[in-house]
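Students often ask why inverse folding is considered easier than folding. One informal answer: many sequences map to the same fold, so there is more than one right answer. In these notes we will look at a single instance of the problem. The structure comes first.
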Protein backbone atom coordinates (compact mmCIF):
# COMPACT_ATOMS: atom_id res chain seq x y z
CA UNK A 1 0.00 0.00 0.00
CA UNK A 2 1.10 3.56 -0.80
CA UNK A 3 0.87 5.71 2.35
CA UNK A 4 -1.00 9.04 2.11
CA UNK A 5 -1.14 11.94 4.60
CA UNK A 6 -3.86 14.65 4.40
CA UNK A 7 -3.26 18.14 5.85
CA UNK A 8 -6.02 20.81 5.65
CA UNK A 9 -7.33 23.29 8.22
CA UNK A 10 -10.96 22.99 7.01
CA UNK A 11 -12.75 20.05 8.75
CA UNK A 12 -15.34 19.52 6.03
CA UNK A 13 -12.60 19.39 3.37
CA UNK A 14 -10.53 16.95 5.41
CA UNK A 15 -13.60 14.71 5.65
CA UNK A 16 -14.31 15.13 1.94
CA UNK A 17 -10.78 14.05 0.93
CA UNK A 18 -10.93 11.10 3.34
CA UNK A 19 -14.19 9.79 1.83
CA UNK A 20 -14.33 10.97 -1.79
CA UNK A 21 -12.45 7.97 -3.22
CA UNK A 22 -12.00 4.32 -2.16
CA UNK A 23 -8.37 4.69 -1.14
CA UNK A 24 -7.57 1.06 -0.33
CA UNK A 25 -9.21 -0.27 -3.49
CA UNK A 26 -6.83 1.94 -5.49
CA UNK A 27 -3.81 0.75 -3.48
CA UNK A 28 -3.52 3.61 -0.97
CA UNK A 29 -3.63 3.76 2.82
CA UNK A 30 -4.30 6.98 4.75
CA UNK A 31 -1.65 7.15 7.48
CA UNK A 32 -2.62 10.54 8.94
CA UNK A 33 -5.18 13.38 8.80
CA UNK A 34 -3.86 16.71 10.16
CA UNK A 35 -5.40 20.15 10.73
CA UNK A 36 -2.26 22.31 10.53
CA UNK A 37 1.35 22.39 9.35
CA UNK A 38 2.98 21.61 12.72
CA UNK A 39 0.83 18.51 13.22
CA UNK A 40 1.52 17.40 9.64
CA UNK A 41 5.29 17.71 10.20
CA UNK A 42 5.21 15.56 13.36
CA UNK A 43 2.94 12.96 11.76
CA UNK A 44 5.23 12.74 8.74
CA UNK A 45 8.19 12.01 11.02
CA UNK A 46 6.21 9.21 12.68
CA UNK A 47 4.43 7.58 9.73
CA UNK A 48 6.75 8.13 6.71
CA UNK A 49 4.09 8.80 4.05
CA UNK A 50 4.77 8.43 0.32
CA UNK A 51 2.33 11.21 -0.69
CA UNK A 52 1.19 14.32 1.24
CA UNK A 53 -2.00 16.16 0.21
CA UNK A 54 -1.22 19.65 1.54
CA UNK A 55 -3.40 22.75 1.79
CA UNK A 56 -1.36 25.88 1.01
CA UNK A 57 -3.21 28.30 3.25
CA UNK A 58 -3.12 26.94 6.81
CA UNK A 59 -2.67 28.86 10.09
CA UNK A 60 0.77 28.79 11.65
CA UNK A 61 3.14 26.97 9.34
CA UNK A 62 1.75 27.40 5.84
CA UNK A 63 1.88 24.78 3.12
CA UNK A 64 4.83 26.34 1.25
CA UNK A 65 7.05 26.36 4.36
CA UNK A 66 6.03 22.82 5.28
CA UNK A 67 6.63 21.56 1.73
CA UNK A 68 10.17 22.96 1.77
CA UNK A 69 10.93 21.18 5.09
CA UNK A 70 9.37 17.90 3.96
CA UNK A 71 11.38 17.88 0.71
CA UNK A 72 14.58 18.45 2.69
CA UNK A 73 13.68 15.53 4.95
CA UNK A 74 12.80 13.22 2.05
CA UNK A 75 13.48 14.33 -1.54
CA UNK A 76 11.51 11.29 -2.78
CA UNK A 77 8.32 12.38 -1.01
CA UNK A 78 5.48 13.35 -3.37
CA UNK A 79 3.57 16.54 -2.42
CA UNK A 80 0.22 17.61 -3.88
CA UNK A 81 -0.88 21.17 -3.14
CA UNK A 82 -4.61 21.57 -2.52
CA UNK A 83 -5.53 25.19 -3.18
CA UNK A 84 -8.37 27.64 -3.88
CA UNK A 85 -8.62 29.66 -7.10
CA UNK A 86 -7.15 32.82 -5.54
CA UNK A 87 -4.02 30.90 -4.59
CA UNK A 88 -3.60 29.28 -8.01
CA UNK A 89 -0.61 31.35 -9.18
CA UNK A 90 0.99 30.80 -5.78
CA UNK A 91 0.59 27.06 -6.23
CA UNK A 92 2.19 27.14 -9.66
CA UNK A 93 5.29 28.78 -8.16
CA UNK A 94 5.37 26.11 -5.48
CA UNK A 95 5.59 23.43 -8.17
CA UNK A 96 8.84 25.07 -9.29
CA UNK A 97 10.43 24.44 -5.87
CA UNK A 98 9.70 20.71 -5.94
CA UNK A 99 6.03 20.21 -5.25
CA UNK A 100 4.84 17.49 -7.62
CA UNK A 101 1.18 18.28 -8.33
CA UNK A 102 -1.57 20.74 -7.44
CA UNK A 103 -5.34 20.48 -7.51
CA UNK A 104 -7.89 23.30 -7.37
CA UNK A 105 -10.70 23.40 -4.82
CA UNK A 106 -13.37 22.32 -5.26
CA UNK A 107 -12.35 19.19 -7.16
CA UNK A 108 -14.26 16.12 -8.24
CA UNK A 109 -13.68 12.49 -7.38
CA UNK A 110 -12.33 11.89 -10.90
CA UNK A 111 -9.83 14.77 -10.68
CA UNK A 112 -8.37 13.53 -7.39
CA UNK A 113 -8.34 9.93 -8.62
CA UNK A 114 -6.44 10.88 -11.78
CA UNK A 115 -3.75 12.72 -9.83
CA UNK A 116 -3.37 9.89 -7.32
CA UNK A 117 -3.11 7.22 -10.06
CA UNK A 118 -0.53 9.35 -11.85
CA UNK A 119 1.59 9.57 -8.68
CA UNK A 120 1.07 5.88 -7.95
CA UNK A 121 2.55 4.97 -11.35
CA UNK A 122 5.51 7.25 -10.69
CA UNK A 123 6.13 5.64 -7.30
CA UNK A 124 5.87 2.13 -8.74
CA UNK A 125 8.28 3.01 -11.53
CA UNK A 126 10.70 4.58 -9.07
CA UNK A 127 10.44 1.58 -6.73
CA UNK A 128 11.04 -0.83 -9.61
CA UNK A 129 14.04 1.18 -10.73
CA UNK A 130 15.52 1.23 -7.23
CA UNK A 131 14.81 -2.47 -6.84
CA UNK A 132 16.49 -3.27 -10.15
CA UNK A 133 19.49 -1.15 -9.25
CA UNK A 134 19.76 -2.93 -5.92
CA UNK A 135 19.25 -6.34 -7.54
CA UNK A 136 21.91 -5.59 -10.17
CA UNK A 137 24.31 -4.52 -7.44
CA UNK A 138 23.64 -7.71 -5.46
CA UNK A 139 24.28 -9.82 -8.56
CA UNK A 140 27.61 -8.06 -9.13
CA UNK A 141 28.52 -8.56 -5.45
CA UNK A 142 27.75 -12.27 -5.64
CA UNK A 143 29.77 -12.78 -8.82
CA UNK A 144 32.76 -10.93 -7.38
CA UNK A 145 32.64 -12.98 -4.17
CA UNK A 146 32.48 -16.17 -6.22
CA UNK A 147 35.62 -15.04 -8.03
CA UNK A 148 37.23 -14.40 -4.66
CA UNK A 149 36.65 -17.95 -3.38
CA UNK A 150 37.84 -19.38 -6.71
CA UNK A 151 41.08 -17.49 -6.27
CA UNK A 152 42.55 -14.20 -7.52
CA UNK A 153 46.02 -14.03 -9.03
CA UNK A 154 48.37 -11.66 -7.11
CA UNK A 155 48.86 -9.36 -10.11
CA UNK A 156 45.07 -8.77 -10.28
CA UNK A 157 44.44 -8.42 -6.55
CA UNK A 158 44.61 -4.62 -6.28
CA UNK A 159 42.27 -4.16 -9.24
CA UNK A 160 39.91 -6.78 -7.80
CA UNK A 161 39.79 -5.09 -4.37
CA UNK A 162 38.86 -1.82 -6.08
CA UNK A 163 35.93 -3.59 -7.76
CA UNK A 164 34.78 -4.86 -4.37
CA UNK A 165 34.92 -1.36 -2.89
CA UNK A 166 32.75 -0.03 -5.72
CA UNK A 167 29.96 -2.36 -4.55
CA UNK A 168 30.56 -1.51 -0.85
CA UNK A 169 32.51 -4.64 0.10
CA UNK A 170 35.41 -3.98 2.47
CA UNK A 171 37.84 -6.85 3.08
CA UNK A 172 40.26 -5.12 5.45
CA UNK A 173 40.89 -7.39 8.44
CA UNK A 174 43.54 -9.21 10.48
CA UNK A 175 42.28 -12.71 9.71
CA UNK A 176 39.53 -14.49 7.80
CA UNK A 177 37.63 -17.77 7.79
CA UNK A 178 35.31 -19.31 5.21
CA UNK A 179 32.46 -21.74 5.88
CA UNK A 180 30.16 -23.53 3.43
CA UNK A 181 26.59 -24.64 4.19
CA UNK A 182 24.92 -27.40 2.18
CA UNK A 183 21.30 -28.55 2.43
CA UNK A 184 21.34 -32.32 2.98
CA UNK A 185 19.74 -34.47 0.28
CA UNK A 186 18.76 -31.35 -1.65
CA UNK A 187 18.22 -33.04 -5.04
CA UNK A 188 15.58 -35.38 -3.62
CA UNK A 189 13.74 -32.74 -1.59
CA UNK A 190 12.97 -30.11 -4.23
CA UNK A 191 12.98 -30.17 -8.00
CA UNK A 192 12.18 -26.48 -8.62
CA UNK A 193 15.00 -23.94 -8.34
CA UNK A 194 12.68 -21.28 -6.86
CA UNK A 195 11.90 -23.60 -3.93
CA UNK A 196 15.61 -24.15 -3.32
CA UNK A 197 16.25 -20.40 -3.54
CA UNK A 198 13.55 -19.79 -0.92
CA UNK A 199 15.13 -22.16 1.60
CA UNK A 200 18.62 -20.84 0.87
CA UNK A 201 17.29 -17.36 1.65
CA UNK A 202 15.95 -18.66 4.97
CA UNK A 203 19.29 -20.26 5.85
CA UNK A 204 21.15 -17.06 4.97
CA UNK A 205 18.86 -15.05 7.25
CA UNK A 206 19.34 -17.42 10.20
CA UNK A 207 23.11 -17.39 9.66
CA UNK A 208 23.09 -13.59 9.47
CA UNK A 209 21.14 -13.24 12.72
CA UNK A 210 23.42 -15.60 14.66
CA UNK A 211 26.64 -14.00 13.40
CA UNK A 212 25.28 -10.51 14.08
CA UNK A 213 24.97 -11.40 17.77
CA UNK A 214 28.75 -11.66 18.10
CA UNK A 215 29.43 -8.50 16.10
CA UNK A 216 31.96 -10.07 13.74
CA UNK A 217 31.90 -8.71 10.20
CA UNK A 218 30.78 -11.24 7.65
CA UNK A 219 29.74 -11.68 4.05
CA UNK A 220 27.05 -14.23 3.21
CA UNK A 221 26.27 -15.15 -0.38
CA UNK A 222 25.12 -17.97 -2.65
CA UNK A 223 28.07 -20.11 -3.69
CA UNK A 224 28.35 -22.86 -6.26
CA UNK A 225 25.92 -25.80 -6.57
CA UNK A 226 23.25 -24.34 -4.27
CA UNK A 227 25.59 -23.90 -1.31
CA UNK A 228 25.68 -20.88 1.00
CA UNK A 229 29.10 -19.38 1.72
CA UNK A 230 30.05 -17.08 4.58
CA UNK A 231 33.33 -15.21 4.96
CA UNK A 232 34.14 -14.04 8.49
CA UNK A 233 36.33 -10.92 8.66
CA UNK A 234 38.00 -10.32 12.01
CA UNK A 235 39.57 -7.10 13.29
CA UNK A 236 39.66 -8.03 16.98
CA UNK A 237 41.48 -10.43 19.30
CA UNK A 238 38.76 -13.08 18.95
CA UNK A 239 40.09 -16.52 17.99
CA UNK A 240 38.01 -17.24 14.90
CA UNK A 241 38.65 -20.96 15.08
CA UNK A 242 37.43 -21.24 18.68
CA UNK A 243 34.52 -18.88 18.04
CA UNK A 244 33.23 -20.40 14.82
CA UNK A 245 32.22 -23.98 15.57
CA UNK A 246 29.83 -23.26 18.50
CA UNK A 247 28.07 -20.56 16.50
CA UNK A 248 27.67 -22.74 13.44
CA UNK A 249 26.41 -25.58 15.64
CA UNK A 250 23.72 -23.21 16.93
CA UNK A 251 22.88 -22.32 13.31
CA UNK A 252 22.56 -26.03 12.56
CA UNK A 253 20.17 -26.51 15.49
CA UNK A 254 18.06 -23.49 14.52
CA UNK A 255 17.67 -24.75 10.94
CA UNK A 256 16.42 -28.11 12.26
CA UNK A 257 14.04 -26.33 14.61
CA UNK A 258 12.57 -23.88 12.08
CA UNK A 259 12.69 -25.84 8.83
CA UNK A 260 11.84 -29.34 7.63
CA UNK A 261 15.38 -30.34 6.65
CA UNK A 262 18.95 -30.55 7.93
CA UNK A 263 22.18 -28.96 6.78
CA UNK A 264 25.86 -29.84 6.87
CA UNK A 265 28.52 -27.17 7.41
CA UNK A 266 32.18 -27.29 6.42
CA UNK A 267 34.50 -24.85 8.22
CA UNK A 268 37.81 -23.87 6.63
CA UNK A 269 41.05 -22.72 8.20
CA UNK A 270 41.80 -19.28 9.61
CA UNK A 271 43.98 -17.30 7.18
CA UNK A 272 45.65 -13.91 7.58
CA UNK A 273 45.48 -12.42 4.09
CA UNK A 274 42.47 -11.64 1.94
CA UNK A 275 44.15 -13.17 -1.11
CA UNK A 276 44.23 -16.52 0.75
CA UNK A 277 40.45 -16.63 1.18
CA UNK A 278 40.29 -19.17 -1.66
CA UNK A 279 42.49 -21.52 0.40
CA UNK A 280 40.13 -21.32 3.38
CA UNK A 281 37.23 -22.00 0.99
CA UNK A 282 38.96 -25.11 -0.42
CA UNK A 283 39.50 -26.35 3.12
CA UNK A 284 35.83 -25.72 3.96
CA UNK A 285 34.81 -27.76 0.91
CA UNK A 286 37.21 -30.55 1.90
CA UNK A 287 35.65 -30.60 5.37
CA UNK A 288 32.17 -30.69 3.85
CA UNK A 289 33.11 -33.73 1.76
CA UNK A 290 33.68 -35.65 4.99
CA UNK A 291 29.93 -35.86 5.48
CA UNK A 292 30.07 -38.69 2.94
CA UNK A 293 31.74 -40.85 5.59
CA UNK A 294 30.46 -39.16 8.76
CA UNK A 295 26.87 -38.70 7.62
CA UNK A 296 24.72 -35.56 7.20
CA UNK A 297 23.55 -32.99 9.78
CA UNK A 298 27.04 -32.13 11.02
CA UNK A 299 29.41 -29.21 11.54
CA UNK A 300 32.83 -30.35 10.32
CA UNK A 301 36.07 -28.40 10.84
CA UNK A 302 38.91 -28.89 8.39
CA UNK A 303 41.45 -28.72 11.20
CA UNK A 304 39.80 -31.74 12.83
CA UNK A 305 39.60 -34.00 9.77
CA UNK A 306 43.00 -32.96 8.36
CA UNK A 307 44.70 -34.63 11.35
CA UNK A 308 43.17 -38.01 10.54
CA UNK A 309 45.23 -40.56 8.63
CA UNK A 310 43.91 -41.42 5.22
CA UNK A 311 44.48 -44.85 3.68
CA UNK A 312 44.04 -46.36 0.25
CA UNK A 313 44.51 -49.77 1.77
CA UNK A 314 44.40 -53.38 0.68
CA UNK A 315 40.85 -54.42 -0.18
CA UNK A 316 40.09 -58.11 -0.08
CA UNK A 317 39.32 -59.11 -3.65
CA UNK A 318 37.71 -62.31 -2.39
CA UNK A 319 34.79 -60.18 -1.15
CA UNK A 320 33.81 -59.52 -4.76
CA UNK A 321 33.99 -63.23 -5.57
CA UNK A 322 31.93 -63.95 -2.48
CA UNK A 323 29.29 -61.47 -3.62
CA UNK A 324 29.05 -63.20 -6.98
CA UNK A 325 28.74 -66.59 -5.33
CA UNK A 326 26.01 -65.29 -3.03
CA UNK A 327 24.06 -64.11 -6.05
CA UNK A 328 24.53 -67.42 -7.80
CA UNK A 329 23.49 -69.39 -4.71
CA UNK A 330 20.80 -66.95 -3.58
CA UNK A 331 22.34 -66.49 -0.15
CA UNK A 332 20.64 -63.24 0.83
CA UNK A 333 21.84 -63.03 4.44
CA UNK A 334 25.44 -63.75 3.48
CA UNK A 335 25.21 -61.20 0.66
CA UNK A 336 24.04 -58.45 3.02
CA UNK A 337 26.68 -59.44 5.55
CA UNK A 338 29.45 -59.06 2.94
CA UNK A 339 28.13 -55.66 1.87
CA UNK A 340 28.09 -54.54 5.52
CA UNK A 341 31.64 -55.84 5.92
CA UNK A 342 32.81 -53.74 2.98
CA UNK A 343 31.20 -50.67 4.51
CA UNK A 344 32.91 -51.36 7.81
CA UNK A 345 36.29 -51.67 6.06
CA UNK A 346 35.82 -48.20 4.58
CA UNK A 347 34.90 -46.76 7.98
CA UNK A 348 37.57 -48.57 10.01
CA UNK A 349 40.41 -47.73 7.65
CA UNK A 350 39.15 -44.15 7.20
CA UNK A 351 39.47 -44.50 3.44
CA UNK A 352 39.36 -41.50 1.14
CA UNK A 353 36.03 -40.62 -0.48
CA UNK A 354 37.42 -41.42 -3.94
CA UNK A 355 38.63 -44.85 -2.82
CA UNK A 356 35.27 -45.54 -1.17
CA UNK A 357 33.47 -44.73 -4.42
CA UNK A 358 35.90 -47.00 -6.27
CA UNK A 359 35.12 -49.94 -3.98
CA UNK A 360 31.35 -49.41 -4.19
CA UNK A 361 31.51 -49.02 -7.98
CA UNK A 362 33.44 -52.28 -8.21
CA UNK A 363 30.85 -54.10 -6.13
CA UNK A 364 28.08 -52.64 -8.28
CA UNK A 365 29.88 -53.89 -11.40
CA UNK A 366 29.89 -57.41 -9.95
CA UNK A 367 26.11 -57.29 -9.68
CA UNK A 368 25.61 -55.95 -13.20
CA UNK A 369 28.01 -58.52 -14.66
CA UNK A 370 26.01 -61.24 -12.92
CA UNK A 371 22.85 -60.01 -14.67
CA UNK A 372 24.70 -60.20 -17.99
CA UNK A 373 25.98 -63.68 -17.12
CA UNK A 374 22.38 -64.76 -16.56
CA UNK A 375 21.31 -63.23 -19.91
CA UNK A 376 19.14 -60.76 -18.01
CA UNK A 377 17.97 -57.31 -19.11
CA UNK A 378 19.14 -54.51 -16.82
CA UNK A 379 16.40 -52.12 -18.01
CA UNK A 380 13.68 -54.66 -17.26
CA UNK A 381 15.01 -55.21 -13.75
CA UNK A 382 15.69 -51.59 -12.78
CA UNK A 383 13.69 -49.51 -15.28
CA UNK A 384 14.65 -47.73 -18.48
CA UNK A 385 15.84 -44.59 -16.63
CA UNK A 386 18.25 -46.54 -14.42
CA UNK A 387 21.76 -45.07 -14.45
CA UNK A 388 23.63 -46.89 -11.67
CA UNK A 389 26.78 -44.81 -11.48
CA UNK A 390 24.94 -41.49 -11.76
CA UNK A 391 22.65 -42.57 -8.93
CA UNK A 392 25.64 -43.66 -6.88
CA UNK A 393 27.51 -40.37 -7.22
CA UNK A 394 24.33 -38.42 -6.47
CA UNK A 395 24.22 -39.93 -2.99
CA UNK A 396 25.43 -37.66 -0.24
CA UNK A 397 26.71 -40.16 2.31
CA UNK A 398 28.27 -43.59 2.68
CA UNK A 399 25.09 -44.99 4.23
CA UNK A 400 23.02 -43.80 1.27
CA UNK A 401 25.49 -45.39 -1.16
CA UNK A 402 25.33 -48.74 0.60
CA UNK A 403 21.54 -48.61 0.80
CA UNK A 404 21.50 -48.17 -2.98
CA UNK A 405 24.01 -51.01 -3.37
CA UNK A 406 21.87 -53.39 -1.31
CA UNK A 407 18.78 -52.43 -3.28
CA UNK A 408 20.56 -53.16 -6.58
CA UNK A 409 21.84 -56.55 -5.39
CA UNK A 410 18.53 -57.66 -3.93
CA UNK A 411 16.62 -56.74 -7.09
CA UNK A 412 19.09 -58.76 -9.14
CA UNK A 413 18.78 -61.72 -6.80
CA UNK A 414 15.00 -61.53 -6.88
CA UNK A 415 14.94 -61.33 -10.69
CA UNK A 416 16.58 -64.74 -11.08
CA UNK A 417 15.26 -66.71 -8.14
CA UNK A 418 13.07 -68.87 -10.39
CA UNK A 419 16.16 -69.91 -12.36
CA UNK A 420 17.51 -71.97 -9.55
CA UNK A 421 16.09 -75.31 -8.67
CA UNK A 422 16.09 -76.46 -5.10
CA UNK A 423 17.99 -79.60 -6.11
CA UNK A 424 20.74 -77.63 -7.82
CA UNK A 425 21.30 -75.52 -4.72
CA UNK A 426 21.34 -78.61 -2.52
CA UNK A 427 24.00 -80.23 -4.73
CA UNK A 428 26.17 -77.11 -4.54
CA UNK A 429 25.84 -77.10 -0.76
CA UNK A 430 26.75 -80.82 -0.56
CA UNK A 431 29.82 -80.33 -2.77
CA UNK A 432 30.94 -77.27 -0.80
CA UNK A 433 30.51 -79.11 2.49
CA UNK A 434 32.55 -82.07 1.23
CA UNK A 435 35.35 -79.77 0.04
CA UNK A 436 35.36 -77.83 3.36
CA UNK A 437 35.75 -81.15 5.19
CA UNK A 438 38.50 -82.47 2.89
CA UNK A 439 40.42 -79.49 1.46
CA UNK A 440 43.59 -80.60 3.32
CA UNK A 441 43.80 -83.67 1.05
CA UNK A 442 46.42 -82.98 -1.69
CA UNK A 443 44.74 -85.64 -3.86
CA UNK A 444 41.31 -84.04 -3.76
CA UNK A 445 39.85 -84.32 -7.29
CA UNK A 446 36.44 -83.93 -8.93
CA UNK A 447 36.11 -87.70 -9.09
CA UNK A 448 36.88 -88.05 -5.39
CA UNK A 449 34.35 -85.33 -4.53
CA UNK A 450 31.72 -86.97 -6.77
CA UNK A 451 32.24 -90.29 -5.06
CA UNK A 452 31.99 -88.58 -1.67
CA UNK A 453 28.56 -87.10 -2.46
CA UNK A 454 27.41 -90.17 -4.46
CA UNK A 455 27.00 -88.34 -7.78
CA UNK A 456 28.48 -88.51 -11.25
CA UNK A 457 31.52 -86.24 -11.72
CA UNK A 458 30.27 -84.86 -15.07
CA UNK A 459 26.92 -84.02 -13.52
CA UNK A 460 28.61 -82.21 -10.63
CA UNK A 461 30.66 -80.15 -13.10
CA UNK A 462 27.50 -79.05 -14.95
CA UNK A 463 25.57 -78.18 -11.79
CA UNK A 464 28.44 -76.22 -10.26
CA UNK A 465 29.01 -74.33 -13.51
CA UNK A 466 25.30 -73.53 -13.93
CA UNK A 467 24.61 -72.59 -10.32
CA UNK A 468 27.71 -70.59 -9.36
CA UNK A 469 29.52 -70.04 -12.67
CA UNK A 470 32.84 -71.67 -11.87
CA UNK A 471 34.57 -75.06 -12.06
CA UNK A 472 34.85 -77.54 -9.22
CA UNK A 473 38.61 -76.92 -9.18
CA UNK A 474 37.94 -73.18 -8.75
CA UNK A 475 35.65 -73.99 -5.84
CA UNK A 476 38.37 -76.09 -4.18
CA UNK A 477 40.92 -73.32 -4.70
CA UNK A 478 38.59 -70.61 -3.28
CA UNK A 479 37.90 -72.63 -0.13
CA UNK A 480 41.62 -73.32 0.32
CA UNK A 481 42.45 -69.61 -0.15
CA UNK A 482 39.88 -68.55 2.46
CA UNK A 483 41.43 -70.99 4.91
CA UNK A 484 44.89 -69.65 4.04
CA UNK A 485 43.74 -66.12 4.92
CA UNK A 486 42.27 -67.38 8.19
CA UNK A 487 45.54 -69.10 9.13
CA UNK A 488 47.61 -66.05 8.20
CA UNK A 489 45.35 -63.77 10.25
CA UNK A 490 45.43 -65.86 13.40
CA UNK A 491 48.69 -67.84 13.39
CA UNK A 492 52.36 -67.08 12.69
CA UNK A 493 53.04 -69.94 10.28
CA UNK A 494 55.55 -70.22 7.48
CA UNK A 495 54.27 -70.18 3.92
CA UNK A 496 55.31 -73.81 3.58
CA UNK A 497 53.34 -74.83 6.67
CA UNK A 498 50.24 -73.00 5.46
CA UNK A 499 50.53 -74.63 2.03
CA UNK A 500 50.72 -78.07 3.63
CA UNK A 501 47.74 -77.43 5.93
CA UNK A 502 45.45 -76.48 3.05
CA UNK A 503 46.37 -79.31 0.69
CA UNK A 504 49.35 -78.08 -1.37
CA UNK A 505 52.57 -80.08 -1.54
CA UNK A 506 54.46 -77.22 -3.22
CA UNK A 507 54.68 -73.80 -1.48
CA UNK A 508 55.49 -72.17 -4.83
CA UNK A 509 52.26 -73.39 -6.39
CA UNK A 510 50.34 -72.21 -3.32
CA UNK A 511 51.88 -68.73 -3.68
CA UNK A 512 50.92 -68.67 -7.36
CA UNK A 513 47.30 -69.58 -6.55
CA UNK A 514 47.19 -67.02 -3.71
CA UNK A 515 48.40 -64.20 -5.96
CA UNK A 516 45.92 -65.16 -8.67
CA UNK A 517 43.11 -64.98 -6.10
CA UNK A 518 44.12 -61.87 -4.12
CA UNK A 519 46.48 -59.96 -6.40
CA UNK A 520 49.44 -60.18 -4.00
CA UNK A 521 51.73 -62.97 -2.77
CA UNK A 522 51.43 -64.48 0.74
CA UNK A 523 54.70 -62.77 1.66
CA UNK A 524 53.33 -59.38 0.57
CA UNK A 525 50.16 -60.05 2.56
CA UNK A 526 52.25 -60.77 5.68
CA UNK A 527 54.24 -57.56 5.14
CA UNK A 528 51.07 -55.48 4.80
CA UNK A 529 49.71 -56.90 8.05
CA UNK A 530 52.92 -55.98 9.86
CA UNK A 531 52.91 -52.42 8.49
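Output (designed amino acids):
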Amino acid sequence: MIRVLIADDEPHFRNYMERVIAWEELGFKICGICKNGEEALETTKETFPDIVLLDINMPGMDGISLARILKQMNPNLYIVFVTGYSEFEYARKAVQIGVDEYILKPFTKEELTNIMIKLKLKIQKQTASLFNQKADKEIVKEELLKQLIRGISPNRLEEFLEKLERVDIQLSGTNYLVSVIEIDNISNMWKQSDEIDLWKFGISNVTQEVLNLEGIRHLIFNGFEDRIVSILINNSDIDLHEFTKPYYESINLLIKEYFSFTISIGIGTVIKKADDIAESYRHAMAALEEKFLLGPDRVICYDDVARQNREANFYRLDLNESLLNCLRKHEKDELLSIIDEARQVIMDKNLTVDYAYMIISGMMSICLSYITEMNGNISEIYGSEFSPYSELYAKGSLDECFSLLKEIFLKAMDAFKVTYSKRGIEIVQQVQQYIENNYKDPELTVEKIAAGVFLDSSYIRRVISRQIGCTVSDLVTNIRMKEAIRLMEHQELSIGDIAEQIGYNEPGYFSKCFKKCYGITPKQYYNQRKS
